[in-house]
Amino acid sequence: MAPRLKLFLPLILFAALALLLFRGLSLDPQELPSALVDKPFPAFSLPSLAGGEDLDRDLFSGEVSLVNVWATWCISCRVEHPYLQKLADAGVRIIGVNYKDDPEAARRWLAELGDPYRANIVDGAGNLGVDLGVYGAPETYLVDAEGVIRYRHVGVVDERVWTRTLAPLYREVGGTAAASEWGAAPGGGP
Question: Protein transport: present as a keyword of the record (predicted)?
């Protein structure tokens, strides 16, 4: 019986590999796992885009924040920017991580398109991005008032993402901006 089993071994291996491939293709890239969820935001000391003193993770103490990894070279970042501005206008605290970008180009971008960020961390070398496990821009992290990462979203934040995912989590971790009262999306609507 063992010799017959050897005949089917290639078929069994092929089936197992096909199953793994199918499973991998069915994963949602927006829900990439993060080893940092439920862990403190990584330690860093990096310059502020606005200039002045370096910023560090104390920036996240005391208030729930969205941390948005963005860059001027990122087309999707331009797509999500108006929605981030709406969130900021409604009182959501957003911290930017300007990722592997030219600071002067980033300042021009914000002057032209508006600045939804309370502060912007310059991550020119991408070291903070590596510590966060960033795959690319945009990525957005929900950080609670104790500086602990509670959720990671890969891709554009828009009304659908905010309504279905981020707003409920934002409220759950204690977000108290007007955004938590819209029912879901800036500009009203349940």
Answer: no
Structural domain 37-181, CATH architecture:
3-Layer(aba) Sandwich (3.40)
Predicted TM-score (pTM) of this structure: 0.78
* Buried/exposed 21-30: b ≥16 CB within 10 Å, e otherwise: eeeeeeeeee
What is the pLDDT at residue 33?
A: 56
Query: Looking at 21-175, which runs of residues are DSSP E strands?
Result: 45-46, 55-56, 65-70, 94-99, 119-123, 139-143, 149-154
Structure tokens at 42: 């990584």
Q: How many degrees, rounded to 5, is the angle at CA 76 between CA 139 and CA 186?
A: 75
Q: Which residue has the tokens 């206008």?
A: 89
- In this structure, what are the phi and psi dihedrals at residue 136, rounded to the nearest 5 degrees? 170, -175
Q: What pLDDT shows up at residue 176?
A: 83
Angle subtended at Cα 117 by Cα 112 and Cα 118, rounded to the nearest 5 degrees: 130
Q: Which segments of the chain have a pLDDT < 50?
A: 26-30, 32, 180-181, 183-190
